[in-house]
Amino acid sequence: MNLLGEYLRARRELVTPDQVGIPSLGTRRVPGLRREEVAMLAGISAEYYLRLEQGRDRHPSVQVLQAIARVLRLDDDSYLLGLAEEKPRRARRRSRKEVVPASTARLVAALPFPAFVEGRYLDVLTANALATAISPRLKAGGNRLRDVFLDPAEQALFPDWERATAVLLAGFRQSVGSDIDDPRFIELVGELSLASEHFRRLWGRHDVAGRLGATLTFDHPQVGELRLDREKLAVSGTDGLMLVIYHPEPGGEAAEKLALLASASVEVRLSVPGCRTDGRGAE
């Protein structure tokens, strides 16, 4: 089975007969829809749909995929369409080094809000001091997936941790797409699959979502509940790097709490000999 087949099967198993208007009579031996039910609703033959799931037909038409996407209740069919695009097979390669443009790094350091840059595999490539004040794991060298799934201190920041992990992983799958031969991807997914049953369960769902903005609530150990808006902005001239900014509603309680964290962060840095506060580090 190829990636397209795996995705179709995983999404089929998440759709119930009631959701598509099929009476659920008696005991069903499979979760979700049967293959023949998907085929019938999409207007294709059961044999053809079986070939798609088994990876024996990897290049269905756009019209067929869009019909299947409607049956599987996909809000966005772009990921499904991308899986069926014909791409040249590449030899096993080294991971590409992700580099933050110097101007973007300066912007992150100068922003008055928590900010960091994440790569395609959700590695933290650079972060400002206020982001690290939100979470000590938000610093260069960290990885958002590894921290949120495996670090108890990071998990405690999220009152609704299960939803947070689901959203994060869906964005990761969208970011990676079908580019799954990168050693960084293989290493990261392998590590998390071995270490976290929760990751394995969510990964098997094949949920996909854009890396979008949202409103997040943190349970911060110093200031308590902290509600911030999150923006994710593509860094121009890069392959998938995103600038992530957390910002509060002006004049609200969250703004006051963020100001307290900013003040505490400055005091900590000033107490370190040789530490500068202009974003250029120690000299």
Layout of helices and strands, plus pairs?
Layout: H1 3-12, H2 35-42, H3 46-53, H4 62-71, H5 78-83, H6 102-110, E1 115-118, E2 124-127, H7 129-134, H8 144-150, H9 152-155, H10 161-176, H11 183-195, H12 197-205, E3 214-220, E4 224-234, E5 242-247, H13 253-270
Antiparallel strand pairs: 1-2, 1-5, 3-4, 4-5
Helix pairs in contact: 2-3, 2-4, 8-10, 11-12
The proportion of residues forming helix, as a percent range, comes to 40-55%
Task: Please give the order of strands in the largest beta sheet.
Answer: 2-1-5-4-3
**Count of DSSP helices?**
13
Structural class: alpha+beta
CATH class call of the largest domain: Alpha Beta
Please identify, by name, the CATH architecture of the largest domain. 2-Layer Sandwich
Radius of gyration: 22 Å
Strand tally is 5
Instruction: State the domain count.
Output: 2
Averaged pLDDT, please? 86
Order of helices and strands: HHHHHHEEHHHHHHEEEH
| Multimerization state | single chain
Q: What is the terminal-to-terminal distance? A: 55 Å
Unreliable spans: 274-283
| CATH topology value of the largest domain | Beta-Lactamase
Biggest sheet details: 5 strands, antiparallel
> What share of the residues does DSSP label as strand, in percent?
5-15%
Question: Shape, please?
Answer: elongated
